[in-house]
Structures are given as structure tokens and as C-alpha cells.
């Protein structure tokens, strides 16, 4: 499983393959692979350093 981040809304989700549309905003966005590949985050879940801050959190 890979963790993906929607480039449009910043939604983080786990899936085997990239979906056609974002489960959150419903747009056909670009998805970034934000899976953890370093020991710091334990090789599971997403890497907070790659995933960064969710855009919707910085909007308000
Ligand atoms: Zn989205």
C-alpha cells in the first residue's frame, strides 16, 4: 500500500494504485507518493516531512 497526497486539497489516503479521482475533493488531481521510506517514521504510514502541511489547514 502506498500513501498518496492530493495536490489539489492535500487529502492523505492509502491505496494500492492512484485513483482516477480524489476521494475527498472528487477532482482528477495529481497525487504525490508520500509513503514513508525512512527509518524515522518506521517505514509505515506517510512521511510527515514529505506530506508536509495540508493546504486546507493553511488556508484559514
Ligand atoms: Zn483532493
UniProtKB/TrEMBL annotation:
Record-linked Gene3D superfamilies: 2.20.28.10
Top-rank lineage group of the source organism: Archaea
A Pfam family per the record: RUBY_RBDX
MF terms (GO), sorted A to Z: iron ion binding
Domain Rubredoxin-like: 1-46
Protein name per UniProt: Rubredoxin-like domain-containing protein
The species this protein was found in: Methanococcus vannielii (strain ATCC 35089 / DSM 1224 / JCM 13029 / OCM 148 / SB)
Amino acid at each position: 500500500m502506498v500513501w498518496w497526497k492530493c495536490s489539489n486539497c492535500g487529502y492523505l489516503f492509502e491505496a494500492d494504485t492512484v485513483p482516477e479521482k480524489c476521494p475527498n475533493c472528487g477532482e482528477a488531481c495529481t497525487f504525490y507518493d508520500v509513503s514513508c521510506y525512512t527509518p524515522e517514521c518506521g517505514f509505515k504510514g506517510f512521511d510527515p516531512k514529505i506530506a508536509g502541511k495540508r493546504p486546507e489547514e493553511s488556508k484559514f
